[in-house]
Amino acid sequence: MDNLTQTLQAVPLNHYIWLSAIIFTIGVIGVLTRRNAIVIFMSVELMLNAVNLLLTAFSVHHNDPSGQVFVFFIMALAAAEVAVGLSIIVMVYRNTQSIDINVLNRLKW
Amino acid sequence: MGTSVFYFVATLSIIFSLMVIFSKNPIHSVLYLILTFFTFTVHYVLLNAQFLAVVNFIVYMGAIMVLFLFVLMLLNLNKENEPNKSSLVKILGVIAGGCLIVTLVGSLKAVSINTPLVLQNPNLGLVKNLGKELFGPFMLPFELSSILLLTAMVGAVLLTKKEEKANG
């Protein structure tokens, strides 16, 4: 394990930031272009994970464990968010027989 | 070997996350999302954040993905009957995402942090180190997150419970 991490230290920090930016953008595109509410939730999970990876990379870069503690809190928050969100989706499906988010467009005003 | 493992895994995570948002069947989306999370676990191992790797494996790939699959199967949504958004909205969404990535990359070019990532302290991501941090300065947020999880559990049960007919 030590040997593996020793050889991988030459990756520039820039490339971690680019990877996280690309995956975050993919999540944004997913939220904007899909209509299935569950797929939209999964895109939100993708965005949260991109931020997690970036926090971990910066925590290693600055040699500060606080960043990894923040990632742990984000994971707890994501679990809570998914539980409540999916139960809301179940409620919506029970009332409208569909999880198309356009059914909910009256929530806009 | 060098840094090629990082680039290989990064390519895989980008490909799988693209498959998540472009596959028609929601079940396939969930399965590709599990693969994406697995590549993230590999990234954590490469950064020597072993605690986060294990937690990511258990919490995301275990708990959250089972929840997604469970809801999809429960609602019987494993078919490709999603009504399509108009292609105008799709193109506009992709253009908006493209603008976001161009802005991010452009601002990063301006800053240009090209220092390689050096792991100064190999014990940084181990359970012992993180536990000291978690139960030291982060004690209060840690306890508050347990209240958050309890609240979410009560809320989820309350929302999905079938309402009894209150007034006849």
From TrEMBL, chain A:
Please state the protein's primary subcellular location. membrane
Q: Does the keyword Transmembrane helix apply?
A: yes
Membrane topology note:
Multi-pass membrane protein
> What does it catalyze?
a quinone + NADH + 5 H(+)(in) = a quinol + NAD(+) + 4 H(+)(out)
Membrane-spanning residues: 15-32, 39-58, 70-93
What subcellular compartments does it reside in? Cell membrane; Membrane
The UniProt entry's GO CC annotations, sorted and at most eight, read: NADH dehydrogenase complex; plasma membrane
Question: Which keywords appear in this protein's UniProt record, sorted alphabetically?
Answer: Cell membrane, Membrane, NAD, Quinone, Translocase, Transmembrane, Transmembrane helix, Transport
Give the record's GO biological process terms: ATP synthesis coupled electron transport
Q: InterPro entries recorded for this chain?
A: NADH_UbQ_OxRdtase_chain4L/K, NUOK/Mnh_C1-like
Per UniProt, subunit arrangement is: NDH-1 is composed of 14 different subunits. Subunits NuoA, H, J, K, L, M, N constitute the membrane sector of the complex.
- Entry function: NDH-1 shuttles electrons from NADH, via FMN and iron-sulfur (Fe-S) centers, to quinones in the respiratory chain. The immediate electron acceptor for the enzyme in this species is believed to be a menaquinone. Couples the redox reaction to proton translocation (for every two electrons transferred, four hydrogen ions are translocated across the cytoplasmic membrane), and thus conserves the redox energy in a proton gradient. NDH-1 shuttles electrons from NADH, via FMN and iron-sulfur (Fe-S) centers, to quinones in the respiratory chain. The immediate electron acceptor for the enzyme in this species is believed to be ubiquinone. Couples the redox reaction to proton translocation (for every two electrons transferred, four hydrogen ions are translocated across the cytoplasmic membrane), and thus conserves the redox energy in a proton gradient.
- Protein family: Belongs to the complex I subunit 4L family.
Q: Quote the protein name from its UniProt record.
A: NADH-quinone oxidoreductase subunit K
Organism, scientific name: Pedobacter insulae
Q: What is the lineage of its organism?
A: Bacteria, Pseudomonadati, Bacteroidota, Sphingobacteriia, Sphingobacteriales
From TrEMBL, chain B:
GO MF annotations for this entry? NADH dehydrogenase (ubiquinone) activity; quinone binding
A Pfam family found in this protein is Oxidored_q3
Q: Which InterPro entries match?
A: NADH_UbQ/plastoQ_OxRdtase_su6, Nuo/plastoQ_OxRdtase_6_NuoJ
Q: Name one GO cellular component term.
A: plasma membrane
**Cell compartment(s), UniProt:** Cell membrane
Broad EC category: translocase
Q: Membrane topology for this entry? A: Multi-pass membrane protein
Catalytic reactions of this protein: a quinone + NADH + 5 H(+)(in) = a quinol + NAD(+) + 4 H(+)(out)
Parts of the chain that traverse the membrane: 6-23, 30-47, 53-75, 87-108, 138-159
Where does the protein principally reside?
Answer: membrane
Q: What is its EC number?
A: 7.1.1.-
Q: Does the keyword Transmembrane apply?
A: yes
Cite the entry's keywords alphabetically: Cell membrane, Membrane, NAD, Quinone, Transmembrane, Transmembrane helix
What does the sequence similarity comment in the record state about its family? Belongs to the complex I subunit 6 family.
Q: What does this protein do?
A: NDH-1 shuttles electrons from NADH, via FMN and iron-sulfur (Fe-S) centers, to quinones in the respiratory chain. Couples the redox reaction to proton translocation (for every two electrons transferred, four hydrogen ions are translocated across the cytoplasmic membrane), and thus conserves the redox energy in a proton gradient.
Q: What is this protein called?
A: NADH-quinone oxidoreductase subunit J
